[in-house]
Write a structure and sequence with these properties.
With 403 residues, the chain is mainly β. The chain has one helix spanning 16-20, and strands at 2-3, 38-42, 55-60, 69-74, 80-86, 94-100, 117-125, 128-136, 144-148, 157-159, 164-169, 176-183, 214-217, 224-230, 243-250, 262-264, 271-274, 282-284, 287-288, 297-299, 303-308, 320-327, 346-349, 357-364, 369-376, 389-391, 399-402. Strands 1, 10, 12, 13, 15, 16 and 17 form a seven-stranded mixed beta sheet that branches. Strands 18, 20, 22, 23, 25, 26 and 27 form a seven-stranded mixed beta sheet that branches. It has a four-stranded antiparallel beta sheet with strand order 5-4-7-8, with no helix packed on it. The protein starts with a strand and ends with a strand. 44% of the residues are buried.
């Protein structure tokens, strides 16, 4: 969840050049690959792999709409510790896919988590197999901030009413910083203006105890021990306080500096505010364009993506969630088998603690009709009411496709 700004790392397999020259498994009737078959491993903002960051995968040179593209992370013993089953875009790419979250925050690897250590990233596709190596450091080597509990343990979500804490490391020693809870955004760049929630919210509904920012002084190591950011997580403003980023900011204040400042939440959301799980079926917006804009209407030829920062705390889930697009059903009965109509369900790892689901391309639309989107949260291939999540609500399809 924490994303920093170091230098970029590209990784290519030894067979990548040969694949470009034609050693793929494609037949002569397949459409040509418009890009070299290449793998780029980086962070959300581009950089070496640093502790706390999200691992971002980009692949080029795939078939248009190819499925399945299998992406895996293997440990030093060649055991798969994180994986995904993906669909390529219309131009034959996997774009900015989050393969693993919160690097190095765990003592052990597996089920989507990466402890400090050395790993291989492997992508299997029609063009062949390509690999790259990464190393997750045991400690951060640059500015870093994360949401946490009072003991400093990583927390990606807080129940409404719970106090919100943050910790930071590798900042400038003995320096005054401001920690801001800010509107969630998908990219932080050098020179960006930092504004608190209050800057865009009606002040009359903001309790006086909700601060604009918290001011702290780093210790001699450049660290900040767990410090309260908010007296309680709030969902007063739907769409603003439901999810937010945490920015820690040195002078000049209110201007993001990639060399001294840090953000919890670049492509991933920093922190999600959640409610207790409601009774009955679970509904949420799921179908989206690639710019994270949810929609209930698409046209043939457009691409449907799926993502979710759940507003409720899920109790029964798998570390890998399946994403289905199905023909619309008026009433989903508990126990109904799931049959994806796009060639197969996508699969990827969740973000631990909040069960966030990153943006994943699910379908390049090729027919009109009414469709539902379903997150198979426990990954068992059937609809479980109160566990799995349906797009929209009970009064219509998840989305409609027209010419």
């Amino acid at each position: 969840m924490i994303v920093r700004f170091p230098i970029i790392l590209h990784a290519f397999s030894a067979c990548a050049l040969a694949l470009v020259l034609g050693c793929s498994g494609a037949t002569i009737n397949d459409p040509p690959l418009t890009d070299p078959f290449e793998l780029s491993i980086t962070t959300a903002s581009g950089g070496i792999i640093n502790q706390g960051e999200a691992l971002i995968l980009n692949v080029t040179g795939l078939q248009s709409g190819e499925y399945p593209v299998i992406a895996q992370v293997l440990d030093s013993q060649s055991a798969v510790v994180s994986q995904a089953r993906l669909t390529a875009s219309s131009n034959g790419r996997i774009n900015n896919f989050i393969l693993s979250y919160d690097l190095g925050f765990f003592d052990t690897s597996g089920d989507g988590r990466l402890a400090p250590g050395n790993y291989t990233v492997r992508v299997n596709a029609t063009a062949g197999t390509i690999t790259g190596n990464i190393s997750v450091p045991a400690a951060p080597d640059g500015p870093m901030v994360w949401g946490c509990d009072i003991d400093g343990n990583l927390s990606n979500a807080f129940l409404a009413g719970e106090p919100v804490f943050f910790s930071a490391e590798s900042l400038t020693p003995n320096t005054v910083y401001r920690a801001w809870p800010v509107d969630d955004r998908r990219a932080w760049n050098d020179g960006d203006i930092i504004k608190s929630w209050q800057a865009d919210a009606p002040s009359i509904i903001w309790p006086i105890e909700i601060p604009e920012y918290v001011e702290v002084t780093t210790d001699a190591n450049g660290d900040v021990d767990p410090t309260q950011l908010l007296p309680y997580a709030t969902k007063l403003l739907v769409g603003i306080t439901d999810q937010f980023d945490i920015v820690i900011d040195a002078e000049p204040f209110a201007v993001f500096n990639v060399d001294t400042d840090a953000v919890d939440g670049q492509i991933p959301t920093g922190v999600v505010v959640q409610e207790e799980l409601p009774d009955g079926p679970l509904y949420a917006e799921l179908a989206s364009y690639s710019n994270y804009t949810y929609s209930n209407e698409f046209k043939v030829g457009e691409e449907v993506n799926i993502w979710l920062n759940p507003g409720f705390r899920l109790n029964d889930f798998s570390m890998y969630v399946l994403k289905y697009i199905l023909y619309h059903t008026e009433l989903w009965a508990d126990g109904t088998p799931l049959e994806d109509i796009t060639g197969g369900a996508e699969l990827d790892a969740i973000q631990i603690g909040c069960i966030n689901e990153g943006l994943v391309l699910a379908w390049i639309i090729d027919q009109i009709g009414e469709y539902d989107v379903l997150l198979d949260v426990n990954g068992n291939g059937i609809y479980d009411e109160g566990i799995d999540i349906l797009d929209g609500g009970p009064d219509g399809p998840g989305f409609t496709v027209t010419d």
